[in-house]
Amino acid sequence: DNLTDGGAISNVQPDKWIVRAGLQWPKYNMSVGWRGSIVDAQSRVPDGIEQTAGYTIHDLMLNWSPKQGYFKHIRVDLGIDNVNDEDYRRHLTVLKQTGRNYKASVQYQF
After folding, report:
1. 94 φ, ψ to 5°?
2. Could you give phi then psi for residue 28, rounded to 5 degrees?
3. d(C-alpha 57, C-alpha 17), whole Å
4. What is the pLDDT of residues 27-42, one digit of tens each?
5. Beta carbons of 57 and 37 less than 8 angstroms apart
6. What residues contact residue 48 under an 8 Å CB cut-off, 6+ apart?
7. Other residues' Cβ atoms within 10 Å of the Cβ of residue 55
8. Alpha carbon of residue 108 to chain centroid
């Protein structure tokens, strides 16, 4: 609360919880993971500031980085952000966030 007038403060972010889980397969030099972001609604805002709905998004990732053989200098990363294609807007932003997003990268080290 604003100590001057007891009103809400506009730039206070809502509560956010991030949960992560993953598995590693050392034999294959591979790992997979999941991240869940749970964000509470922000309804305690001053007049003239738009309230923000809560949302939950899920992300998946995979990493493969072989240590020997023909591909030993290569690293492959794959990911899907916002798997559930949640339609959401972060607090104090005007534009909605990106829907489902696919990512891939390949690195070569020499």
Report:
1. -90, -40
2. -105, 5
3. 11
4. 999 999 999 999 999 8
5. yes
6. none
7. 19
8. 26
